[in-house]
């Protein structure tokens, strides 16, 4: 009778002890899996962490153990984004990054039974693509060699920007990184070959697949006795010399022109004195007066007009 009444009590005790042993075994197994790296922490990653605003991206969450049936949970901050079950292959989470709040941080959780692990945080960064760079070239030439300076700059795009210079399709410089908006420079020396060299440059920042190339610049040939590149270099100097000559002539002619304007008399009389000899051999001075003509009003000469029209009279003053 006593045994019959206490049978449920023994059954409850047995189930409790079994559950305790099972949970201890599971906890022991989880700790063992962690220590033996059988269930390592997951890894969350993307093809790139630098993106443009509004870009679609894929986040991957993977675990090195390919034999376990794993539950994957993705978080952005404290927000739960989704849960997926998988085995062997990494889980892919497709996202669209439209604003700063979408940049992260992201964290992935993997769970097997009651054992769970968390990944390191992952965040994206916004960047603007570079624009087509501008290539400028300056050169100094001797009889045997040409000394060239190449300058390349992209006026837009997130910094830093890496610049590379090319001769035709062959890179002739290492990547030159610029953390400020200024041209990258590269100097080279080439022997005079008479061939036409073509140069260009490439600008690239951390955005993948957004590199830009400048327009090609072709250096003129210097073969033979002609020197078109020398003429190109001398042309600004010749133009400056021509401007200086024109200014010198202008400053030389203008004062003379003003002096001539001031020397024109206002019809002032002028006398000339000359000498002559008479029949007795004595010399006499002869004074000549320069006549001055003055216009006289018509009323003063009506008596002389004799009713004839079409005439203009002047007075002769000696």
TrEMBL record:
Residues 42-125 form the Ig-like domain. Keywords: Glycoprotein, Membrane, Signal, Transmembrane, Transmembrane helix. InterPro entries: Ig-like_dom, IL-40-like_Ig. The chain crosses the membrane at residues 233-254. The gene is MILR1. Residues 1-27 form the signal peptide. The keyword Transmembrane applies. This is Mast cell immunoglobulin like receptor 1. Coiled coil: none annotated.
């Amino acid at each position: 009778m006593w045994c019959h009444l206490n049978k449920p009590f023994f059954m409850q005790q047995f189930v409790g002890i079994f559950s305790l042993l099972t949970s201890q075994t599971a906890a022991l197994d989880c700790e063992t899996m962690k220590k033996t790296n059988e269930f390592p922490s997951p890894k969350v990653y993307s093809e790139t962490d630098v993106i443009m605003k509004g870009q679609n991206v894929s986040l991957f969450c993977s675990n090195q153990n390919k034999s376990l049936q794993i539950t994957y949970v993705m978080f952005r901050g404290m927000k739960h984004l989704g849960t997926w079950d998988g085995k062997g292959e990494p889980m892919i989470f497709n996202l669209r990054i439209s604003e700063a709040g979408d940049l992260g941080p992201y964290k992935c959780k993997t769970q097997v039974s009651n054992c769970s692990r968390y990944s390191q945080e992952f965040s994206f960064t916004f960047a603007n693509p570079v624009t087509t760079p501008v290539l400028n070239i300056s050169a100094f030439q001797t009889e045997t060699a040409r000394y060239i300076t190449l300058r390349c700059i992209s006026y837009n795009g997130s910094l830093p920007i890496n610049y590379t210079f090319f001769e035709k399709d062959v890179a002739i410089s290492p990547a030159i990184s610029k953390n400020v908006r200024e041209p990258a420079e590269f100097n080279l020396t080439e022997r005079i070959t008479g061939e036409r060299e073509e140069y260009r440059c490439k600008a690239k920042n951390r955005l993948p697949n957004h590199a830009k190339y400048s327009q090609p610049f072709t250096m003129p040939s210097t073969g033979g006795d002609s020197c078109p590149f020398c003429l190109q270099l001398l042309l600004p100097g010749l133009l400056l010399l021509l401007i200086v000559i024109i200014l010198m002539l202008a400053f030389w002619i203008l004062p003379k022109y003003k002096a001539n304007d001031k020397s024109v008399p206002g019809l002032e009389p002028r006398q000339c004195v000359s000498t002559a000899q008479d029949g007795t051999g004595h010399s006499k001075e002869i004074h000549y007066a320069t006549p001055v003509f003055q216009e006289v009003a018509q009323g003063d000469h009506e008596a002389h007009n004799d009713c004839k029209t079409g005439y203009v009279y002047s007075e002769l003053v000696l």
